């Protein structure tokens, strides 16, 4: 573990200067924080600092807090805080599981990992989840976003305004992060917490890595989906709301996109202009330690859909593509909550289709029941883990080219069709139904490609980025992430 003391070294050799946050580009060479915290000088490389046995840590007062100006170095464990607005066992989506997996792996690698998340009440909570210290900060916005109550437009507007910068979050995070004395902060989904977390870390000179899982920074709904269509760019209203967040994004030293699509979509809107960008695709642990074996397709052929049965997930397009198969011997299997109550109408509109409804089913229990999974997302999926999860069970998947989905299928572009082209998707389904040889070949190829989305690759890449952030090295992260990617492919 990194030493928590300076061991008598001179600040000239120990202090690393974190990236400046100028008021405008013309002042990019100035670091206004130096006037508050005392002179901070450029140091030699992190390897030189660590060669003497120290960790490059110097404490200086800022806003009544003690901050650290040093950083972790290669070969040593880091003290890292992962921040996300939800954390297991409270799960609303895939991000919580990704953050959990990353936290466990970093801990198992010897790093000191803590979790900062959001409570469902006005009170703070601290607990231990699978050996991880989880601190839930008070929920100080006007309502709890995770409850299922109906809210007026006014309440939603007030929530969004306070979420842009919540002073209660800022001061609470300032105190909490000061106590943690971490080397790097990795933020993920921040809805309900907001960019105030970044400002608190900046005041304490804690390097920030932000991971983009959705579009909340650009759009209050997090989906960039309106009137049944994906938004190609932020509308005027969203740009107005998001502009303060874009300014705060200059506090972030490294930004990670779960796909190149979601990363570029943010950079096009002037987010993270000062951050070092890189792409680390999502990864998931296997559902089972017991390897699956190939199976012959069912008769009738089972076409699966898993997820919310709403417009963003393309449930209508799923039915339309199945209808376009024209007489194929197939059966639709649908797993997911029907919150919008659309399934009955869709089934009635397609009386010739055999449909099996499951409601909510765990993915590991659903995938073995079907022969193929269809991903008809009409919104721009940031990445779409549902596209590669079935591969573990030798079940191919096919998808629209929405958002980051083409990056999942980079090895199988023939398994994607243009978004909304239900005729082409129906033809692709028909090929799987009619050609057992093609089905078996794609099942084996997809299963082999599943290894690319296992956590060890993701862990190595995140370690490289967090290490570079802790060393305040904005050039090192992207290079190391690329090197790790090459190593895992070789």
From TrEMBL:
Residues 92-283 form the Glycosyltransferase subfamily 4-like N-terminal domain. The keyword Kinase does not apply. Residues 1-32 are annotated as: Disordered. It holds the Pfam family Glyco_transf_4. The keyword Ligase does not apply. Residues 295-444 form the Glycosyl transferase family domain. One of its GO terms (molecular function) is glycosyltransferase activity. It comes from the Bacteria. Residues 1-15 have a biased composition (Basic residues). Keywords: Transferase. InterPro entries: Glyco_trans_1 (IPR001296), Glyco_trans_4-like_N (IPR028098). PANTHER family: GLYCOSYLTRANSFERASE. This is Glycosyltransferase family 4 protein. The lineage of its organism: Bacteria, Pseudomonadati, Pseudomonadota, Betaproteobacteria, Burkholderiales.
């Amino acid at each position: 573990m990194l030493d928590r003391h300076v061991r008598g070294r001179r600040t000239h050799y120990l202090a690393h200067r974190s990236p400046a946050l100028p008021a405008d580009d013309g002042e990019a060479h100035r670091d206004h924080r130096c006037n508050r915290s005392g002179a901070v000088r450029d140091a030699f490389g992190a390897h030189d600092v660590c060669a003497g046995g120290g960790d490059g840590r110097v404490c200086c007062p800022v806003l009544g807090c003690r901050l650290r100006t040093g950083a972790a170095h290669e070969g040593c464990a880091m003290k890292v805080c992962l921040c996300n607005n939800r954390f297991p066992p409270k799960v609303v989506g895939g991000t919580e599981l990704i953050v959990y997996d990353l936290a466990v792996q970093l801990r198992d690698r010897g790093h000191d990992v803590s979790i900062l998340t959001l409570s469902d009440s006005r009170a703070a909570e601290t607990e231990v989840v699978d050996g991880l210290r989880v601190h839930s900060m008070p929920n100080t916005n006007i309502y709890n976003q995770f409850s299922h109550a109906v809210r007026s437009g006014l309440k939603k507007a007030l929530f969004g305004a306070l979420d842009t910068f919540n002073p209660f979050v800022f001061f609470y995070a300032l105190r909490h992060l000061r106590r943690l004395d971490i080397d790097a902060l990795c933020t993920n989904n921040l809805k309900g917490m907001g960019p105030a977390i970044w400002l608190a870390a900046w005041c304490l000179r804690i390097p920030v890595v932000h991971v983009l899982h959705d579009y909340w920074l650009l759009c209050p709904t997090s989906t960039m989906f309106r009137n049944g269509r994906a938004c190609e760019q932020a509308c005027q209203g969203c740009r107005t709301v998001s502009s303060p967040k874009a300014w705060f994004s200059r506090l972030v030293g490294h930004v990670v996109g779960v796909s190149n699509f979601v990363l570029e979509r943010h950079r096009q809107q002037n987010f993270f202009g000062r951050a070092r960008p890189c792409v680390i695709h999502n990864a998931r642990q296997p559902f089972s330690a017991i390897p699956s074996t190939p199976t012959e397709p069912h008769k009738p052929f089972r076409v699966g859909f898993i997820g919310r049965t709403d417009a963003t997930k393309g449930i209508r397009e799923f039915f339309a593509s199945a209808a376009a198969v024209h007489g194929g011997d197939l059966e639709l299997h649908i797993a997911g909550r029907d919150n919008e109550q659309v399934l009955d109408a869709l089934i009635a509109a397609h009386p010739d289709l055999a449909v099996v409804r499951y409601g909510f089913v765990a993915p590991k229990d659903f995938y073995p029941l079907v022969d193929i999974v269809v991903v008809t997302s009409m919104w721009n999926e940031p990445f779409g883990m549902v596209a590669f999860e079935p591969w573990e069970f030798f079940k191919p998947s096919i998808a629209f080219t929405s958002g980051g989905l083409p990056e999942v299928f980079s090895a199988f572009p023939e398994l994607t069709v243009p978004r909304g082209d239900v005729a082409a998707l129906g033809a692709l389904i028909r090929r799987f139904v009619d050609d057992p040889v093609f089905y078996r070949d794609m099942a084996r190829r997809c299963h082999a490609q599943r290894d690319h989305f296992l956590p060890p690759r993701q862990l190595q890449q995140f370690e490289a980025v967090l290490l570079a952030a802790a060393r305040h090295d904005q050039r090192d992260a992207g290079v190391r992430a690329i090197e790790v990617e090459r190593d895992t492919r070789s």
